[in-house]
Amino acid sequence: MLVRLRPRLAQVASLVSDGSVVADIGTDHAHLPLYLVEEKACSRVIAVERSFLSSRLARETVDFFDLNHKIEIRIGDGLLSLDKEDGVDVVVIAGLGGKTICRLLQAAGGRLQQYKRLILQPMRDTFLVRRWLAANGFCFPQEKLALEKGYFYEIIAAEKGRQNINEPIFWELGPTLLQNGDPLLIPWLEHKLKCCDQILKGLLCSRKGKDDPRWRYFHLRYNSLKGVLNDVCRRE
Q1: How many beta carbons lie within 10 A of that of residue 229, not counting itself?
Q2: Rounded to 5 degrees, what are φ and ψ at 16?
Q3: Is the pTM of this model over 0.90?
Q4: 10 Å Cβ neighbour count for 145?
Q5: pLDDT digits over 165-182, tens only?
Q6: What CA–CA distance (Å, rounded) separates 132 from 18?
Q7: Exposed e or buried b for every residue in 105-126, given b needs 16+ CB within 10 A?
Q8: Regions in the chain scoring below 50 on pLDDT
Q9: Across-strand partners of 24?
């Protein structure tokens, strides 16, 4: 094995079909492309960075393993750096904020229709990514969780289709995560519930207490999370 991926990127890689042609947007050290060509039999990976300076680490990695014939380092602005002739099946955008991911998807416009799958791992604001996908004709048939260094990460695999969201809380929690019962689902929900409880306690200790408009919002959110967690536990 050329490189061993940490949990976050390992879960991203697990959603890539064997033999795919992949574009890794914001590749950083190019560890994911290395893993994909070795372990997932990907014939080609285009590793994209925004500038020559930021692509230096990726170039050094690919050169070290002598994989320039399978991994191309490309400089450009996200998906706009890709051409139809590249034959990309799967686009990966991992490690960026949700707002940035939505911006990159929006900028790509009609180009998105040529890809079979988008694999997205936002560092925050995942609910914004789900909303953008559903509003633009994508469903998310697969979602996974990863736990790395005490932090939970959500990974969304999106494809063309219709996604139904029945409850507002599901934009945040992910309908496929809840339906398929990810191994990390209960610890993740418990973590979210704990964070919400800490916020409520902090607000109660503040000068306004329950009169703070934020208290009602987090109180409702706490009850919604607790209800979802109870439903998940009953299914176990």
Answers
A1: 18
A2: -95, 125
A3: yes
A4: 19
A5: 888 899 999 999 998 889
A6: 27
A7: beebeebbeebebbbbbbbebb
A8: none
A9: 47, 92
